[in-house]
Write a structure and sequence with these properties.
The protein is of the alpha/beta class and 538 residues long. It has 16 helices and 20 strands. The strands form four sheets. The chain has an eight-stranded parallel β-barrel with strand order 10-11-12-15-16-17-18-20, surrounded by four helices. Strand 11, helix 6 and strand 12 form a beta-alpha-beta unit. Helix 8 runs parallel beside helix 11. The longest helix has 18 residues. The chain is elongated, with a radius of gyration of 28 Å.
């Protein structure tokens, strides 16, 4: 009823007045912290005048001001909720799994915390409400009677409800009266960081996790092996590890923090290309062309020793990145830019690989089939660890004797590679795709190869999850296969920016992408208004 009245443009004056009288029936005492006149004092004893009291009538509320914006808000009249003396965060009896979320919000808002207590005015209550029909990560937030109640089908959804409270209090000092029904548009929303070419501290990575969680992002990709470095300690092959690296204790700490924030960490050992750090310690694994020239960063996939060392590392780290009770687990296999397949005639340039392809897959097999077989074999090594597998789009090939395992998700980043395939090819085959469009979502240090640092405004005003390649969206019929997106930091020129400069540079692009992945509607705020809100929420 309220929503219809609020949106109607053709109501008669009499109807509007009557509606206003009904809505004005919700009044609150004037000593509420929102202000208003104090109650009139009673006259002297025996006075014939009666005491008068004034009450405040509240305007119809607006939605909480957050990034990303909430999907649905049912407005109401009332003071909303704001923290005050004695306010607490309560976890509903039977929802003990929300204890971490409750304590976190209590700490952030400097409130008390309790479990299983009876709510009273001023409190925020968190509760799990399993519902088979509810969307994962969704929540309902109700602000009324000076209280807030957040419910959801899972812990992640309730957690995102607490992010809405936190941001609303930062923006306006309160949570507005009314009911929010909120849910993400895409299940995968995240940040990807190249920690191989540039060393980052565990503290810097943890700061990005906290920032991402407030934006309701749920993935952090860590590309930790490349030609320039291998950045996590190894027990199986310590010889490949760079001097500057994360210890396993630091990785466990990062994964534990991510898990508490409902963020899945996606590790990536990129192969069979981008293995220069491994090749430096094992030069016998390096791929050579027909003339005997070494191929930078690429291992010889016909050499069984190359598979053995990569598989040792995959098994070692698959366990390290497997949190108990954490979000859905992923593993990125890489597969991109294998230099043997970036030339016009791989069979002529790399005859040893061509011979191995014929021997393994038949007389009509090509070098691409050997690379696909490599990808499938590495997937088989990781699969027992219950990981959802991913690979870059240029690691998939058409018209081969071998097909990539259909369960591997395509991470689409570019259409610039040799013999590039359009995103529709993957989508029409039923493959799930994640958007890392290098036109909008690639922050490449030093801006090489015509890259420019992406702006939040361009993402906010032009990009959508369907824009997978260049600036053109794929047809809407494929939208259900696009799982989401990650914003990627690549450190091609590692010294071009400091970690602090990177954090500052990606700040608004991350917020713009988060908005587009959570709420599919055209943003209600202008870019200037969005930026002003982001400043208040920082």
């Amino acid at each position: 009823m309220i929503r219809k009245l609020n949106r109607s443009a053709g109501l008669g004056t009499g109807v509007l007045v009557a509606a206003a009288v009904v809505l004005a029936a919700v009044v609150w005492p004037d000593d509420d912290t929102t202000g208003g006149s104090a109650p009139a004092s009673a006259g002297p004893a025996g006075s014939s005048s009666s005491a008068s009291t004034t009450s405040r009538v509240y305007p119809l509320s607006g939605a909480p001001r957050t990034i990303p914006s909430v999907r649905e808000h049912g407005p109401a009249r009332g003071p909303g909720w704001q923290p005050g003396p004695g306010s607490r965060v309560l976890v509903d009896r039977g929802s003990k799994g929300l204890a971490d979320e409750g304590r976190m919000l209590a700490h952030e808002l400097k409130l008390g915390y309790a479990y299983g207590r009876t709510p009273r005015p001023g409190d925020i209550e968190l509760a799990l409400r399993p519902d088979a029909k509810a969307v994962p990560e969704s929540y309902t937030l109700s602000a009324r009677d000076h209280r807030v109640r957040i419910t959801g089908p899972d812990e992640a959804g309730v957690f995102y409800g607490t992010r809405t409270v936190k941001q609303s209090v930062r923006a306006d000092g309160r949570v507005p009266e009314g009911v929010v029904h909120d849910r993400p548009d895409r299940p995968q929303r995240g940040l990807n960081v190249d920690i191989a070419r540039k060393s980052f501290t565990a503290g810097w990575i943890e700061d990005r996790l906290r920032e991402a969680a407030d934006l309701k992002l749920n993935e952090l990709g860590l590309h930790f092996s490349d030609d320039q470095g291998f950045r996590i300690a190894s027990d199986s092959h310590p010889e490949v590890v760079s001097a500057q690296h994360l210890t396993k204790a630091e990785v466990r700490r990062i994964v534990a923090l991510a898990t508490s924030l409902h963020i899945a960490v996606i590790p990536e050992i990129d192969s069979p290309g981008h293995l220069g750090a491994v090749i430096k310690a094992h030069p016998d694994l390096q791929l050579k062309d027909a003339s005997g020239a070494a191929t930078r960063g690429a291992v010889d996939v016909s050499n069984p020793a190359a598979a053995r060392i990569v598989d040792d590392l995959l098994r070692e780290y698959a366990g390290l990145f497997s949190p108990r009770g954490g979000p859905a687990a992923y593993w990125h296999l890489g597969g991109d830019e294998y230099r043997a397949l970036t030339v016009k005639d791989p069979e002529t340039s790399y005859p040893r690989l061509a011979d191995e392809a014929h021997h393994t897959y038949g007389p009509h097999a090509r070098v691409q089939d050997l690379a696909t077989g490599w990808l499938n074999d590495r997937a088989a090594v990781v699969r027992p660890y219950a990981k959802q597998l991913k690979a870059w789009n240029d690691g998939f090939f058409r018209d081969g004797a071998v097909e990539a395992d259909p369960s591997i998700e395509v991470e689409y980043w570019t259409g610039k590679e040799y013999s590039a395939r359009q995103p529709e090819e993957y989508l029409s085959a039923g493959r799930r795709v994640v958007n890392l469009n290098d036109e909008y979502l690639y922050y490449v240090l030093g801006e090489p190869n015509d890259f420019t640092y992406p702006t939040g405004r361009r993402i906010y005003e032009q990009w959508t999850p369907r824009v997978l390649r260049g600036t053109r969206p794929v047809p809407a019929k494929y939208a259900h296969l696009i799982q989401g997106a990650r914003f990627a930091v690549w450190c091609d020129h590692a010294d071009a920016q400091t970690p602090a400069q990177i954090a500052s540079g990606i700040r608004m692009p991350l917020r713009a992408m988060a908005q587009k992945l959570w709420n599919p509607e055209k943003p209600a705020l202008t870019w200037q208004q969005f930026g002003a809100l982001a400043s208040k929420l920082s």
